[in-house]
């Protein structure tokens, strides 16, 4: 049996096709309405218009503590000609206005004479400090329309208007079906090739976050008959079924054919990245039920929920989808995008100078941490090939702008010390974030030059002088740039090898061995420059090294490749070797520095970082990683 895979179509066209298929199949356009006490209705959507049953306030009342007076009796009152009143009434805020009185004078503006009269030194206009009947709400007025999602202030207004019960849409029910022979429940000890069922937990939480009731079934094996039965069973208790994995066109990808067999297949393949193999359709029944086939990669699954499930569930409640606020930001580095698909890119945000800066996170569909660390979403439309560094882009906010004001933006070479610093800063103050982007030392210095980061991490070796970083500053910034360079650490670089060093590597000269598979760092990375320098000293042609052109963007990426057996060795820091249980063949000890504009030394955003570098506990934590010396940590070397 072949998969009914169709060409990718634009997201909006896919949403329309799904809506049309649901209507044709007889899926209910709305979930049922239920009556709830007003105090329990927050977050629900009104199923009918709400009309005020009484006015608020229901009587003329005092708006201030003071005395009630007849305004006509205060005419002519002034500092030089005060008016003495015998007839007045003492009132507190909220008291009904006594009959015959039409104004209130604040207590602090009244002087009482020894004989009990009130002395006023200013005339009072009618209805001063008086809340008139119906000032807030008038009986019989429209309070809330149908299709309004209720907030705390809304239910308070309803209660004030005498509404004690509300007719609202019940919570939509979402049933999530995880599939796959390799999927195991969260908490299970995993064997080779087995994957924890984190997607179900994530999608259920996304559904709950927007006000739905979510239920996850047991894991279903890769058997089309079993999956079809699970889909039909779930549809009987759901307003939306989400089927996880199997939505692509592989041998065990059955989602599209299951949906076609269980009801109607509307869409298979949407022009979005990540997440293009999404499946949209309906499950036959009385009534029919919408079904969404979500890709198995976590980033794709989460994005699929945002683009397709969230609008569908909002429509079932008769409400508009919840929209996140947006902002404009300068892109911290070049962002390429393939023509033909909307490219959803998660970004970190920070304010550098007067601009919000967006740093793209890793974009692979399986990189769950990109969801964790994201502050915003950047959509590159299908017809755009990408954006240049520094270009203004529009970002959908996942965190409030106030939350990113104290974000330290670090761009440049990767180092584990920055991760330790980020954790320590957040532990000390939850409002502080250190967001680092790994683009290599050279890329970091260029980003600093262009005003796209606070600090650049660098360990660029100048082969001509043997110095690190400093010789590059005049070339990149010009000879008169006011820069500061702060030493972060010294660190050991060497060859990362499998435990026990089974190939018996002793140094750089061994990289030319024909049986050796090397993994390199990207161009512009200080580690790449160090390797080229060491090769040059030995007269070794890089093209003779198998794997020289194969690149990773972090030391941990190099270590992971060696640990997984995809490479035999790569140049990296000792801490990365220790993190993956690898052995280490030393090559060089080098400084790793933070470069910044000199004015940044007094920037309050960076102040917590400088304070952290002085702490003995932090330095001890760094040295425990292995291969680090903090003897000069925090010292300004320029």
Please provide a written account of the structure.
It comes from Pseudonocardia cypriaca. It catalyses: adenylyl-molybdopterin + molybdate = Mo-molybdopterin + AMP + H(+). Belongs to the MoeA family. It is an enzyme of class 2 (transferase). Catalyzes the insertion of molybdate into adenylated molybdopterin with the concomitant release of AMP. This protein has 638 residues and is of the alpha/beta class. It folds into four domains: 11-30 and 172-317, Molybdenum Cofactor Biosythetic Enzyme, Chain A (3-Layer(aba) Sandwich), CATH 3.40.980; 33-57 and 135-169, Molybdopterin biosynthesis moea protein, domain 2; 61-131, Molybdopterin biosynthesis moea protein, domain 3 (Molybdopterin biosynthesis moeA protein, domain 3, Beta Complex); 441-636, Periplasmic binding protein-like II (D-Maltodextrin-Binding Protein, domain 2, 3-Layer(aba) Sandwich). It is 25% helix and 27% strand. The strands form eleven sheets. Strands 29, 30, 31, 32, 35, 36 and 37 form a seven-stranded mixed β-sheet that branches. The chain has a six-stranded mixed β-sheet with strand order 16-13-17-21-20-18, with helices on both faces. A five-stranded mixed β-barrel has the order 22-25-24-26-28. α3 packs parallel to α6.
